C-alpha cells in the first residue's frame, strides 16, 4: 500500500494579530504597481499584498492603527475598509 502525502495547506500571517492561518481564512489586500489598493479575492493578483483575518475587530484595528498603510507603503482609502467589512459580513452568513 502506498502512503498518500497530505495536501500542503499554505499558511499566511495576519498583519494585525500575527497569527499564521490557512490562506482561505484570511483576506488579501493588494497594491498594484500603479498604487491602486484593492481586495484580492483570487489571492493571486500581482502587487504587494497584506493579509487580514476575516474579523470585523481586526479590520477596525487595521483602520485605526493604519497598519495597511505601512505594509502596502501607500494610503489606503476608506472605501477599501468598507469593502473589507462587507466581505466579512458576506463570509459570516
TrEMBL record:
Q: Where are the transmembrane segments?
A: none
Biological source species: Culicoidibacter larvae
Q: Which InterPro entries match?
A: YlxR, YlxR-like_sf, YlxR_dom
Instruction: Please report the name of this protein according to its UniProt entry.
Output: YlxR family protein
List, for all copies, the residue spans of the domain called YlxR. Answer: 12-84
Amino acid at each position: 500500500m502506498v502512503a498518500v502525502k497530505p495536501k500542503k495547506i499554505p499558511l499566511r500571517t495576519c498583519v494585525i494579530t500575527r497569527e499564521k492561518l490557512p490562506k482561505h481564512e484570511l483576506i488579501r489586500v493588494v497594491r498594484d504597481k500603479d498604487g491602486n489598493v484593492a481586495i484580492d479575492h483570487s489571492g493571486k493578483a500581482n502587487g504587494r499584498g497584506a493579509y487580514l483575518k476575516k474579523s470585523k475587530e481586526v479590520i477596525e484595528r487595521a483602520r485605526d492603527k493604519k497598519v495597511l498603510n505601512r505594509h502596502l507603503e501607500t494610503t489606503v482609502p476608506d472605501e477599501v475598509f468598507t469593502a473589507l467589512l462587507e466581505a466579512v459580513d458576506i463570509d459570516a452568513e
